[in-house]
Amino acid sequence: MTDLTQKILRPANPEATRIFFLARSAPLAPDFAVASYPGDGGYPAYYHRIYNTLRDIGYRVTTSNQCRALYTEAHEIDLVFSLYNRMAIDNPEVFVAATCEFLHLPMIGAKPNIRALAEDKWMTKNFVRSLGLPVSEGAIYSRPEDLLSPPPFAGPYFVKNRFGAASEGVSEDSIQDDWDGAKMAAEKLFARGMAVLVERYARGVDVTLPVIGADEPVILDLVQPRSNRAGEIITEDLKRDDPLGYALYDAGAAYGAFADDAKRLWAAAGPIDYLRLDYRFDEKTGQRVFLEFNICCHIGRSGAICLAAAQKGLSQADLLGHVVEYALRRHWRAVETRKWVR
Predict the structure, then answer these.
(1) pLDDT computed for residue 341 by the predictor
(2) Alpha-carbon gap, residue 329 to 338, rounded angstroms
(3) Among 73, 100, 195, 219, which residue has the fewest nearby CB atoms (within 10 Å)?
(4) Which positions, given as ranges, span the membrane (predicted)?
C-alpha cells in the first residue's frame, strides 16, 4: 500500500491546470447536465461523472462533443482529456491523438503511433507475438470477396471488428463452429462497414489486467467483466450498457505470467498514461490468450481499473489526478528531449 501510494502523483496546484474534456456525449455548457444521446447506453452518465470528478479535484475544465473544437477552442488549454472513441471513421482515437500532435496539444493516453497500434487488433496481435505473448491464430478480411478463402486454421472461430472500440460488432454470432457460419457473421460486419478479423476461438472467460502509467508501471489485480452470453464473451450491448459490471479475479499462480506480459508490452510501447490488457483465460488448463490492449480504457468508478485500484486504497479521484499529472509530465519530458536533440 505504501509503495503504491508513493508512486501515485498528487495534484499540487490543480487550479492552474486547464483541461479540455472531449467525448461524443460530453456534458456541455452552460449547465453541464448529463447529455441526451439515444443509443449511447451508459456513456453520457459516465462522461458526466468524469467531468465532475475532474472539477472536484480542482482542475479548470471546459468540454466539447466536437473534434473540430481542437482547432477552434482548445488553444488555451494545458491538456486534452479525450474519451472520444467512436465516430463515423475508422480509428477515431488515432485521429484525435494525431490532431493533438499536429497542434502541439498535450493529450491523455499515448503517442499517435501507439494509439494506432492498439486500435488495429491485427497489428496488435503480430506485435505482441513478437514480444512472446500468447495469441490465437488469426486472419484478416477486408472485402466480402476475400471470404472465398477460409483462414489457414480450423475452427471454432471468433469473428470480430478489426478496428473499433467498446466491443463494437461483437455478438453471440461472433462464435462459430465452422467456416460457413463464420462467413455469415463476417458478412454482417461488412454490411456495417467494418473490416473483419477472424481468430481461432479461445475457450475460457474474459479477464483484464489494468495498468497505471508511472516511471515503473503499476500493474493491478486481474478483473473479470461479467457476462451472461454464450462463451461468457463481452458483447457490444453488454459493453454499451454494462448491466452486469466487473469482479476481481484470482488467477492464482498464473497471475505472474499476466504481469510479465504487461512489463514486456510497457517496455516496447510505453509510456502510456493508463491501459488494460484483455485476455481469454482457461481456468482448467491455465492457458491465457492475449486479445488486445486498450488505451484510455473505461475509468468509471465501477469499471475494471477503478475496481482494481480500490483494492490498493485508491479512489477514482486519486486515479484521475495521477493520470492528468503523469500525462503532463510525460508530455513535457518529450518537449525537453526534442529541445535537447535540436
Answers:
(1) 43
(2) 14
(3) 73
(4) none
Residue 269's contacts (CB-CB under 8 Å, 6 or more residues apart) are 110, 114, 117, 127, 293
Q: How far apart are CA 176 and CA 180, in angstroms?
A: 8
What integer best gives the mean pLDDT of the chain? 91
Q: Are residues 213 and 305 in the same domain?
A: yes
165 and 210, same domain (yes or no): no
Q: Are 24 and 224 in contact (CB under 8 A)?
A: no
227 vs 249: CA distance, rounded Å = 14
Q: Does some domain include residue 280?
A: yes
Verify that 44 and 11 share a domain, yes or no. yes
319 near 304, Cβ under 8 Å? no
User: In this structure, are 126 and 267 located in the same domain?
Assistant: yes
Amino acid type, 160: K
The domain that contains 297 carries what CATH number? 3.30.470.20
Mean pLDDT, rounded, for 8-28: 95
| pLDDT > 80? residue 323 | yes
The beta strands (E) that lie in the chain are given as 18-22, 60-64, 79-82, 138-141, 157-161, 175-176, 196-200, 205-212, 218-219, 223-225, 246-248, 274-282, 287-295
Same domain, 158 and 195: yes
Q: Which residues constitute the domain of residue 265?
A: 117-134+203-310
**One-letter amino acid identity for 50?**
I
Q: Are residues 295 and 176 in the same domain?
A: no
C-alpha cell read off for 326: 503523469
Same structural domain for residues 30 and 122? no
Say whether both 127 and 83 belong to one domain. no
Mean pLDDT, residues 24-29 = 93
Q: Average pLDDT in the 10-37 region?
A: 93
* Cβ burial 10-46 (10 Å sphere, 16+ → b, else e): ebeebeebebbbbbbbbbeeeebeebeeeebbebbeb
Only one residue has cell 490492449, namely 293
Bridge partners of 157, per DSSP, are: 176, 200
